[in-house]
Amino acid sequence: MGMQRRFGWASLAAATTMALAAGVTAAPAAHSADDPVQIVVDGNDVRADNVNGLTYKGLGLLSCNSTSNLLMDYKAEHPDRYWQLIRVLFGGKSPLINHVKVEMGSDTNTSTGSDPATMRTRDELADASRSPGFQLAADAKTVNPKLKVSILRWVMPQWVQTEWNKGTGTDEMYRWYKETILDAYQKYGYMVDYVNPDTNETQKPDISFIKWYKNTLANDTEFSDSRYGLTDRQQKSAAKAYHDIKIVASDENTTKNIGPAMLTDTELFGMVDAVGYHYTTDDRLDGTSDSATYRPYTKLATGDNTYGQDKEVWYSEGVGSFGWTDYRVSNTEGPGGASTGIGGVQSALDLANRSVKSYANSKRTHYIFQPAIGAFYEGAQYSHKELVSARDPWSGSIHYDAAVYVMQHFTQFAKTGWENGTNTAGIWRTVPEASYSGVSGTENVDGSNGAPSYMTLADPAKKDFSTIAVNDSDRTKSYRIKAENMALGGDPTMEVWETRAADPGQAYDANFKHLAAEIRPDNDGYYTYTVQPRSIVTFTTLDRSSDKATNQRLPESAARTVLDTDATGKKHDTRDSVLYADDFGYKEEGRVAVGTDNGARKVSQSYLTSRGNQPRYLVDQTGAWEVGKGPSGDNVLYQYLDQSMKDTGAWNRNTPNTTVGDFRWENYRASVDVSFPDPAGGLATLGVRQQKGMAASDAAYSVGIGPSGSWTLYRYGTALRTGTVAAADGYRLAVEARGATVTAYVDGQAVATYEDSAPAAEGRVKLGTDFHTTAFDNLKVEKVAGYTPYAATLTDNMDSSVAYDGTWSRNAALGDAMNWYRSTSTSATAGATVTVPFRGTGIDVIGGNDGSAVLDVFVDGRSVARNAKTTATDKRQATYSLRGLPDGRHTATFTLQSGKIVLDAFTALSGDVDGPVDTTPLRTALDTVGSPDRTDYTADSWADFATARTTARAAVRGQKGLDTLGVGQLANRLVDAYDRLVRTEP
């Protein structure tokens, strides 16, 4: 049992190193998968004196690499929904999230994008307001001032990296950390609680630097430097708070070296307050039971170690739920092709099992999601791996996954957080003797073996307890729970709260976090309950049946409307020719509320001040993209990462590029002014139809130009055409994509046109540079006359509205991030069908395919295409496109005739078409087929022809929503139906 005495790090540094204690808390005995699970919650096992290791801190989130980028836009465009999100995640008496961990940006991409560096040069004043993570923490503190904030680094700014590579960069590293910390304190009123001085996901903790950093921090007395911007009164409070910063180490991935190091290094043990590692649930198990390498993290957490002191142990980076639970319940990954419900690998129940197993095996009492909020555009690395999706700030749509309910089973039935210095906060303790996990795996865990998985939390005063049980199998599991030496009071009633998938005929969320039963102990003192397959339950002695917060449902998702604004880029407007515009001045934007004073109040700031001059709706993949003053004094967008700051250490090394817009945009013209203030050179690119990837070359089509006037038209980074215009200080670039035709413009003149035999049809706009300061202004995205500008909706292949018949494999576990919601439905069986309801003038079948599939296509019960060929396509692209339907509600059925089809999603085309549409091709087709005699042909072939001809005639007379591509398809379908007419036997 952990000893109550507490040592400072200086005292421990002077202590004599002793042999490690061998007495590590034993886990409950293993259970058979078929036996009832018997749990005894013994009050004598509730360690009220263990204030660090066994206190349940709940959940945290990691903000880094653009994962929080679009939250700044939600706050500005839909503040009501943004602040609702803050309340849902961070607010209330039982917050879901207690900690915001910020990975400090370096304008480079080490995951899904880049976060801005707070200091791009040694002499630049730190600006934490550039970072979405520091802002998120400030706003979260308005509903939970006790929220913890921690920071760490991965890639460092080049001015730090240069000195670090020489072996002399400790002062530069410390300066970057300190000035960032103090800037956040000056702007938002909170002091960072934890710092990891070491690099993220190291395999060899830099122990000497950790010690140097701790000593430097503890002995730093300089807080009056004008660079910090602190008033005389702030300096004193800042100094005290700064010296209270704790050290966390070492954020290893796959290795577990910091634990043994702390157990054998007295000075290090005294300096480090918390340890954490990533993507494994297990402790280290090598060596004998009394060695520093055998269960070191359990020894640290329980205090069963030489020093008799317990330490915090974190699961310091772990995944969220992969895909959307609402979609993955339609999978066929269970036994015999059954659904796994809300369970399965990488599911919401997987997250619950990770939390349980990481505690049972390595005593980690804090799980940090990377990320909890996905606020970056889909198609970047690690898409669809979060609890909350917030990707359309113009619409305000936010999706709360069922995984939120699942994780609330841990946080809403206990008092979570960090114990105070006097041990009076009442934070609940985890109970090792009443916690166990038998599920398989160490990262993507698998509960299908039916083994028990449970974790117990208890009030340190022993008045209440909660046991969370996870059953991610297709079998029921019986639990028997008994309380001993607990002061439960006169009413022994236990509530059972459950989350699982809907039963047939129910709404999809009917069984999400609801009170399933109230039970009382049997004569032998045991509470007995059968846990349903693919579910999580919390057994609690707390009375939550009437608690409003516990019964509160998560907000419903709003519709994901397409980005289609007026000329200001602010107001939704489908009636004009503009899709989006940004002059980077933001006079149309109002003031924005920002949390400050450690959450005590909100202040109103101007738009750009509130966000550190970060531009609207741009998600950076690499580079320092920021609004600044141009030569004329007006705002322009700069990419500042030049040769002196060049990215040399990022995981994903790309030239600077950023993305803006809607993945559903199809036929449009994008244009922007570019200029080159860097005398050393430069390159500017403008791309269209970007759907996935994180490089400038991931735009399907782009044009690039340099100050000399040399230009190039690219398809996915491959040069198609090159040329030269007169050299100038700046140019206006444009790319127009109309179906398969792509045209590049320089200063209004068409310089190249390309016809793509396998066109990429949809996607966003990309801006790119090389490593020189480059300026952009007056971005405009416009509709193209006669063409449908965008798809109105996307329907996932797993959506409940999509019906399947025949043999299909429908998978979500271990899904590819480049597939929508990481799910696909696949068939290679002739006769297999899929039926999709939609509204619009056409539909695209999205998925990565080899082009072997041949389809029969029916719309509203009528044949529109026989033996239609598909196209070999990459993920997120259309393998088959249907156009020319009357604008309205339809049902499309696709029947596989031969080959193999992979379905990812379906996009339905908008009926919004501007300008005249030339129907000449359709008139020509009608003239070509003439007026054949019905009696000359078989009934079936004539029916297809008659439908095609009737449809064509109606379109010529005038059809709402008909565009140029629809005209072409109607003409082709008519001629094809004519060619397939079969004459009757004479």
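The record above closes out task 2.4. Task 2.5 opens with a second protein, given below.
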Amino acid sequence: MPSTNPSDPHASPDRKASLGGALRRRILTMHLAPGAVIDETELAEEFGLSRPPVREAMRQLAGEGYIELEPNRPARVTPLGYRSLRDFFLFAPVVYVASTRLAAERRTDAEVAELKEIQHRFRAAIRDGDVDGRVFENDRFHLKIGEMAHNAYVLPSLRRCLIDHARIAKVFYEDQLAARHPKMAEERDEAAAQHDEIIAAIEARDPDRAEALVRAHLDLSRRNMAMYAAPEGMAIRFDN
């Protein structure tokens, strides 16, 4: 019979799974900012775990690319700086195109139905003004396409790209930012419509159409990140 002692590292696989899931979501939605220190003691108390299973979860998250572990230093959320953004936009098209083309060729009807359900939740989050929900369901949408590719080499690379994709998307989906940039709000709606078109292309087993759509989808992210990083200068009047 499993132990119920919260200090037993083997007692609660559910709590360990909850810890990993919570950390992933907090990082993807930027509640844990890039570069932020992760306090093992606080997490152990929050999830009713001893330090060893917390460290085990940390090692797993480090292997997936969510956090960085260095000797004699506290764990930190993987940074997201200029170099990371540049590397993401250089490499992401390779992975996204490969996963989307393969999904169009290998998908099952059940997988298409699940992808449509994820898109339904994504649009519900948009309707409800749920920014974190938008980020999380957008991540689930692209991850599901990667799973539909049924390729053991593509999926790990896609998972790593999606960590930074989600954090970029958090900027894209912020309502306050969109209010200052009407073009960004329009393109956010366009991105949601592209999801529907990508689903249709995958369902039709049309890899060429799916590739064209996912390339356009990434271009939207690139343009909006540029808009955020290099906004127009403030208009300042100098009266005589």
